[in-house]
Design brief:
Strand order of the largest sheet: 23-24-26-28-30-32-34-37-40-42-43-44
Distance between the termini: 97 Å
GO biological process, one term: defense response
Keywords: ATP-binding, Leucine-rich repeat, Nucleotide-binding, Plant defense, Repeat
Number of helices: 25
GO molecular function, one term: ADP binding
Strand content: 15-25%
Pfam family, one: LRR_RPS2
Structural class: alpha/beta
Shape: globular
Family: Belongs to the disease resistance NB-LRR family.
Helix content: 25-40%
Radius of gyration: 34 Å
């Protein structure tokens, strides 16, 4: 009986408890919903705070951690469910007991879930550092890889794949093409995904171990903050041994480099590290490793054959050299160039378009030239480069060319630092076209080939002096004769009291912070008294440290001696007194970037010849009176360019908000007479800038060439800018991270007759979460968005973008289309595609567009008259590149890609064919076809007889190079799908 009673009691307890909870759901209905509301607000706050950190990390290029992404996604779902629940609770009636019970129970459960997620949303860090960017080079489209070089490229590639070989030495005389060859190897190694990490360092004549270490570490995503040399070596060595595969390229080595002192593993302990070295002398390789061992391979790079030399000369001088009037002279020049690519290219470009008399004179000039002796350089190279310089028609171009040799080897030379600012870009283009300057991977910069620089330094040695790795000052008597002196990347510890250089016009002083000192370098004011002819003084510090305050305090007093100074550049300095700078009446360019001012720059108004003022990232010291005065700038009527970080740099008049635009309005009123003023700056704190405040920029809008809109939260389209001033002169438009931006143009706001953006050449959209299309409807009659000068159109991370063109739309004439990772885009164009024409389009790069099924409808494809490059990657649903649409009224039988040279198809898992319809396809100039990771592509076109590719000689399919002699492409695709072959095949 006791047992039964006990069991019954226990059952009663179990029954009462659920009943109590159920009654509690009725009783606590209101408190449960209120508590849920409170917890929703708290969780929303936690999520929003985390999102701010995530957005900041994204702007810094960092990678958001997966757990953070998952938490935000999960919380968004929970909050959505909770808000729906609260919405239902607000509508339920009192007498609806069943609904109140259900909602109260769910509210309690959801509250508990929110409390749990709230605690889990605390992360030590939201992101990881971004992986190092891939090694990229400026476009080498003018470079020709000849058969002799192709064999050497293949030999190097085989060595890279050979597990026994860890050292590859490439040697040959200066100008023979070693670096060009290595860049081609890097390109192929990246395409074949041989190495996750590739580092390339230009070593040059003066070995800088720290620079080499930093470049390699950067490619690995490693920061070497240690000062101690041995610690740096140990950390780099340990990291390189951890890497499964890494390729290190040491370019242009002149003497033995002890790899152990850098931290590069070699021999049996190399791990997955492979090394490529380029040098002018084989002996350098011999001193670094045992080149006879099976772990090393040394490859000589010889001069080009006569046939290859003729092809290269013809490419650069023009086909006219085949004519009877020029042929004999061209062959004489060919012999003088000695089979060296750099000589053939520079001379060929110098002679392009010249008449027979000039060709005859060129032969005489080359033969009588007396070359200087430079180590590792063939005399023919010197003669040819000297000739190319002599044949420059523009005297300013010659001046800029010699000025470039004052910068260190492999230096990214800022174009804006060069002379003749107004015509600098045309001069640079002239020099690049002549191959005397090269492009750079850093925007706004150029480089000089090491061989060209050696020749330039030799030619300018009578009046230019470049000093390297100085620790003590050079002989003063010797320095007197120079008109230009460069003391960049040096470690001098003190300067002379006086410096007698009466002819000196250019002085570049970029002093390194050395391991031997942390204190300021004292430079007495008297050092400037002996250089009264000085026109350019560039004194910038690389340490980014304010420790040079004492130096500036005394040096400023010496500025009064420099009455001929045209350009003054100071960086990272504490400027005690700006008065002496205001006395430099001839000054045209003044750059005080990253400087701190002790006193207001009230004397700036005296600089009436000033054309450029750069105070970007500069700041006042002390109270607000140290800021730039507006009124003092009223006389700067010749000012063309003004660079600053924020409006806080301009002293306020009546306003306290540091980001309002009224200050610049006041400033504009002071320079109303200016004919050239352009304004560049980054206006921080986007949330503080309203679209309505743009009205004060109205005076600038009609003459704005470049407009960059970033983090404007209210901006929905560019109509405010258009209505303010028309943007009739705008050439470049970039819109980034504007969360409300939906359309480029809102058609509903235009009532009059407008030609919108008539001069626009480049248009870029990036990180726009709500951007849908260029225009939200049809523009009214008389208003057009033709953009006939548009050459470049790009979209980056615009998830709501469904199509690029909303038709009907006029003919588009842009040259380059870039669309990466637009996962929601389904079509290139919306509407009847017969109306869309792209006759100027030359380059198309599309990747990561997961919903795109067809790239070009046949009606668009037949009008791609100028298309040269087509690159498609990682588009999961893509089935065909060209396809007919059922709604197209006009039947299309043939599509001719008359200029297409290169097609690259990669990771297109559903691609079935280039075209599935029975169209005749012609590619008369197609030379390169690469198909990789496209498993369903078993045919290239619908029928066997409709592909015409007369110039295609080789095809790359999944890393297999397949020779092609005219057999239709379908046969190759079918054969490849049956069997994967790793050797060269012939058809």
């Amino acid at each position: 009986m006791d047992v039964v009673t006990c069991i019954a009691g226990k059952i009663g307890e179990l029954l009462v408890e659920p009943i109590g909870r159920q009654i509690g759901h009725f009783i606590h209905y209101t408190s449960n919903t209120v508590k849920l509301q409170e917890q929703v607000k708290i969780l929303e706050g936690v999520r929003d705070d985390l999102q701010v950190s995530v957005d900041a990390a994204k702007r810094n290029g960092e990678v958001i951690r997966k757990e953070v992404q998952n938490w935000i996604s999960m919380v968004d779902g929970i909050l959505s469910e909770a808000n729906k629940l609260l919405g239902k609770a607000s509508k339920v009636r009192f007498h609806n007991l069943a609904s109140r019970y259900q909602l109260s129970r769910k509210a309690e459960e959801k509250t508990m879930e929110i409390e749990k997620q709230k605690n889990e949303g605390k992360f030590d860090r939201v992101s990881n550092p971004a992986p190092p960017p891939p090694l990229l080079f400026p476009s080498q489209e003018d470079i020709v890889i000849f058969k002799s070089r192709e064999r050497q490229v293949e030999e190097i590639m085989e060595a890279l794949k050979d597990n026994k070989i860890n050292f590859i030495g490439i040697y040959g005389m200066g100008g023979v093409g070693k670096t060009t060859l290595v860049k081609e190897v890097v390109k192929r190694a990246q395409e074949d995904m041989l190495f996750p990490s590739i580092a390339m360092v230009v070593v040059s004549q003066t070995i800088d171990v720290k620079k080499i270490q930093d470049h390699i570490a950067e490619s690995l995503g490693l920061k070497l903050d240690e000062v101690n040399e041995q610690n740096r070596v140990s950390r780099l060595l340990a990291r390189l041994k951890e890497e499964n595969k890494v390729l290190i390229i040491l370019d242009d080595i002149w003497a033995r480099l002890d790899l152990a002192t850098v931290g590069i593993p070699l021999g049996h302990d190399h791990g997955g590290c492979k090394i490529i070295v380029t040098t002018r002398r084989k002996q350098v390789c011999d001193t670094m490793v045992d080149t006879r061992s099976e772990t090393a391979k040394v490859i000589p790079i010889n001069i080009l054959s006569e046939k290859e030399s003729w092809v290269l000369l013809k490419k650069n001088a023009g086909a006219e050299i085949e004519s009877l009037t020029l042929n004999s002279f061209a062959k004489d020049i060919l012999r003088e160039c000695g089979g060296l690519p750099i000589a053939l290219v520079t001379v060929g470009r110098a002679m392009r378009g010249r008449d027979p008399d000039e060709w005859q004179e060129a032969v005489r000039e080359l033969r009588k030239s007396q070359p200087e002796t430079i180590e590792g350089m063939d005399e023919d190279v010197y003669r040819c480069l000297q000739f190319s310089y002599t044949y420059l028609k523009d005297k300013k171009a010659k001046k800029v060319f010699k000025l470039c040799c004052l910068f260190p080897e492999d230096f990214n030379i800022p174009i804006e630092d060069l002379d003749a600012r107004r015509s600098a870009h045309s001069i640079i283009k002239n020099l690049k076209d002549s191959f005397l300057l090269l492009g750079s991977d850093e925007e706004g910069c150029v480089k000089m080939h090491d061989v060209v620089r050696d020749v330039a330094l030799s030619m300018a040695s009578d009046y230019f002096r470049w000093c390297q790795k100085l620790e003590d000052w050079p002989d003063m008597e010797e320095m007197k004769r120079y008109t230009g002196i460069s003391i960049m990347q040096n470690e001098v510890s003190q300067f002379p009291d006086a410096w007698d250089c009466p002819n000196l016009k250019i002085l570049l002083m970029h002093i390194e912070k050395t391991r031997l000192r942390e204190e300021a370098i004292y430079i007495p004011a008297t050092v400037l008294t002996g250089m009264k002819a000085l026109q350019v003084f560039d004194r910038r510090d690389s340490s980014r440290n304010r420790f040079l305050a004492h130096f500036l305090r005394s040096l400023e007093l010496g500025f009064s001696q420099l009455t001929n100074l045209r350009t003054l550049m100071l960086q990272y300095y504490y400027i005690v007194d700006t008065t002496p700078i205001g006395e430099l009446k001839m000054l045209e360019i003044l750059s005080l970037k990253n400087c701190t001012f002790r006193k207001p720059f009230n004397t700036i108004g005296k600089l009436t010849n000033l054309r450029l003022l750069d105070v970007e990232f500069s700041s006042p010291h002390g109270d607000s009176s140290s800021k730039f005065p507006i009124n003092a700038m009223s006389t700067l009527s010749r000012l063309e360019e003004l660079y600053f970080l924020s409006f806080d740099m301009l002293r306020p008049t009546d306003f306290e908000n540091p980001y309002n635009f009224y200050r610049i309005n006041a400033f504009l009123s002071q320079v109303e007479g200016s004919n050239y003023l352009g304004l560049c700056g980054e206006f921080g704190g986007g949330s503080n800038i309203t679209v309505s405040s743009l009205v004060c920029m109205k005076p600038l809008m009609p003459r704005t060439n470049f407009l960059y809109l970033d983090s404007l939260e209210e901006l929905k389209n560019i109509n405010p800018c258009l209505l303010l001033g028309g943007l009739d002169a705008l050439k470049i438009l970039v819109i980034v991270n504007c969360p409300s931006f939906a359309y480029l143009i809102n058609a509903e706001e235009f009532l009059g007759r407008y030609a919108l953006l008539p001069e626009l050449e480049r248009l870029c959209f990036q990180d726009l979460d709500t951007f849908k299309a260029l225009c939200n409807g049809e523009l009214p009659p008389g208003t057009s968005l033709s953009m006939r000068k548009l050459k470049y159109l790009a979209f980056f991370r615009c998830p709501e973008l469904l199509n690029i063109f909303t038709l009907p739309n006029p003919q588009q004439e842009f040259e380059q289309l870039q669309v990466p990772e637009e996962k929601g885009m389904k079509n290139i164009a919306k509407g009847p595609t017969e109306q869309l024409q792209l006759p100027k389009l030359q380059i198309v790069c599309i990747n990561g567009c997961q919903k795109l099924r067809v790239i070009f409808p046949a009606s668009i494809a037949q009008g791609l008259e100028q298309l040269k490059e087509l690159e498609l990657e990682d588009c999961d649903e893509l089935e065909a590149i060209v396809a007919e649409r059922e709604e197209e009224e006009k039947r299309i039988d043939k599509v001719v890609f008359s200029q297409l040279i290169r097609i690259r198809l990669y990771k297109l898992h559903n691609l079935k064919a280039f075209c599935m319809d029975s169209l005749t396809l012609k590619w008369p100039f197609l030379e390169e076809l690469s198909v990789d990771s496209c498993p369903k592509m078993k045919t290239f076109a619908a029928s066997d007889g409709n592909q015409i590719t007369p110039k295609l000689k080789e095809i790359k399919i999944n890393a297999n190079y397949i020779k092609f002699n005219g057999t239709n492409l379908n046969a190759i695709m079918k054969y490849h799908n049956k069997e994967k072959v790793r050797t060269v095949l012939s058809f």
